[in-house]
């Protein structure tokens, strides 16, 4: 027989394909047309291939190739033994979280489109970084500088300031020293090798 049904224990039933590398297809009839809804490739260690979308937590009408729904629905990605994994979860309050090993929330996207990294607070009262949908970036660090800019190889601009997309000033380096310049030719260069 190409396909056998068996009961391996009191609680486990098996569908077996004894032929070497014999694939298993699940075929249905859609309005008189045969449709292969799912295929198990035994030559690829049992990989499963779906013809269209996969719906979890719904009975019909998947709106994406993978449609997962439910109260606080989540997707887990990790090692086989769950030694390391991430959980992506939709909170019922309307935000998306990324959790590390279910121990700590590492990042979230709130219902307003703001990205919060290392914090759950959309502001500067807690340590972390917030990139707001309005274009603001908020960085808070305890006991250290919250922003580090590093240019390698040569001197030049490190930070460029613009107004209505027109250059108005910059902070950079000249001769390996701090240099602050306006949009014109004026600027200030700091040196520690001169006496006033």
Quick rundown:
The protein has 196 residues and is mainly beta.
Main features:
single chain, seven-stranded antiparallel sheet, 196 residues, mainly beta
Mean pLDDT: 87
Assign the structural class, choosing from mainly alpha, mainly beta, alpha/beta, alpha+beta, or little secondary structure.
Answer: mainly beta
Specify the biggest β-sheet: 7 strands, antiparallel
Main-sheet strand order equals: 8-9-10-11-12-13-14
Distance between the termini: 97 Å
Oligomer: single chain
Task: Please tell me about this protein's structure.
There is one protein chain. The chain has strands at residues 4-7, 13-16, 24-30, 33-41, 47-50, 54-56, 66-68, 74-78, 85-90, 96-100, 104-109, 115-117, 128-131, 137-140, 156-163, 166-174, 177-182, 187-189. With 196 residues, it is mainly beta. Strand 1 (4-7) and strand 2 form a beta hairpin. The radius of gyration is 29 Å and the shape is elongated. The termini are far apart. The model has no long low-confidence stretch (mean pLDDT 87).
């Amino acid at each position: 027989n190409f396909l056998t049904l068996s009961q391996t224990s009191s609680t486990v039933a098996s569908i077996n394909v004894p032929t070497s590398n014999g694939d298993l297809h699940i075929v249905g009839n859609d309005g008189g047309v045969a449709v292969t809804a799912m295929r198990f490739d035994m030559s690829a260690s049992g990989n499963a291939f779906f013809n269209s979308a996969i719906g979890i937590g719904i009975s019909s009408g998947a709106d994406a190739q993978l449609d997962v729904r439910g109260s606080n629905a989540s997707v887990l990605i990790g090692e086989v033994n769950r030694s390391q994994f991430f959980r992506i979860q939709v909170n019922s309050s309307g935000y998306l979280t990324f959790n590390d090993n279910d121990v700590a929330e590492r990042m979230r996207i709130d219902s307003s489109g703001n990205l919060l990294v290392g914090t759950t607070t959309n502001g500067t009262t807690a340590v972390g970084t917030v990139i707001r949908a309005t274009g603001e970036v908020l960085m808070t660090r305890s006991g250290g500088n919250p922003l580090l800019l590093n240019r390698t190889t040569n001197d030049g601009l490190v930070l460029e300031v613009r107004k209505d997309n027109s250059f108005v000033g910059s902070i950079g380096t000249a001769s390996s020293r701090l240099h602050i310049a306006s949009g014109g030719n004026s600027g200030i260069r700091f040196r520690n090798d001169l006496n006033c």
